[in-house]
Sequence to fold (65 residues):
Amino acid sequence: MANYYLDIETTGLNPETCKIITIQFQELDSITGEAKGELVILKSWESSEKDILEKFIEIGRASCR
Fold:
């Protein structure tokens, strides 16, 4: 099982009015905890909240294969 660092930045805690602005993740070594893969940062200001969520799901599905 892989270990990951995951950070989701939002504009607040209310899902009705607040938005996800970044999703960051990186695979970590399961023994040492050191970075194993590249740090991926998906930014809503470069596309949209919907686009970064779709990209995050797409990457996640691809890594499970």
